[in-house]
Design goal:
This protein has one domain: TIM Barrel (Alpha-Beta Barrel). It is built from 13 helices and eight strands. It has helices at residues 25-37, 57-71, 86-95, 116-129, 140-143, 149-158, 172-181, 196-201, 211-214, 216-227, 231-248, 255-263, 280-292; strands at 8-12, 42-45, 77-80, 103-107, 134-138, 162-167, 187-190, 206-209. It has an eight-stranded parallel barrel with strand order 1-2-3-4-5-6-7-8, surrounded by six helices.
Length: 296
Amino acid sequence: MKYDKICGVGAAMITPFKADGSLDKEALCRMLDYVIEGGADYIVALGTTAETPTLTAEEKHEIIDLTRRHVAGRVPVVVGMGGNNTAELCRQLREMDTEGLVAVLSVTPYYNKPSQEGLYQHYKAVAEASPLPVILYNVPGRTGVNMTAETTCRLSHDCPNIVAVKEASGKIDQIEQIIKCKREDFVVLSGDDGITIDVIRKGGDGVISVAVDAFPEKFCEVVNLAREGRFDEADKAYESLNDAVCALFEQGNPVGVKAALSIKGIVGNNLRLPLVPATELLIKKLEKLICEYDLR
């Protein structure tokens, strides 16, 4: 049976900051309520969208603790734990506090550019070390390496503790190959909001989404329609979101989504270097789209 705690819509949470650069814990709680009340099926903390490379180890622990306390069992919580030092990552996994968490999202090692065999051995070690089920995260645009469908499927068959993949390669043919050759109960999640309907149409199980942070009700409606097999209705519902979702990524993630959330008055438009806030041009574009398509 599929690990259904991670099917549907996972919200890849931002990390809100105050103007002075410190964590904005009140805004994080507002965000959690906003996406849960908007229909998100589960929370993903400390992923790419959270500006995780700029967070200290202490801040990461604070975010995890606050997230699980504030969510308080309303939906499952997944935590991002990845790295390009396999031994250190495995040590962290063995020592982690798993209370209130249902899975680990682990990105492919970045910068090192390992071979497919290196990726396989890395994730095999991670699966053995992790006290929680593992979600693979393939995002070659950020890491510099693409994990092939063959490697993903090999891991799905060889490692029972690896339960899913978040596929952000953007390659529908690669995703289709994973769906065709994976372990039967292995979950396939889109890592790109714009192709979520197509991934589900091919047999995928949902998405770990950025757009749901900004437009939770409307985006969850689209995914729910697709998961029910009502693809024409899902396509039509997505028409009013398409331009806004594209705009979220024009200047990178989470630049666009933080701009949209600041327009909606939910968080301040504050990022940590090397990221900088959206330009006035993008802010005006998002303001227009939010108003035009009633995305408030």
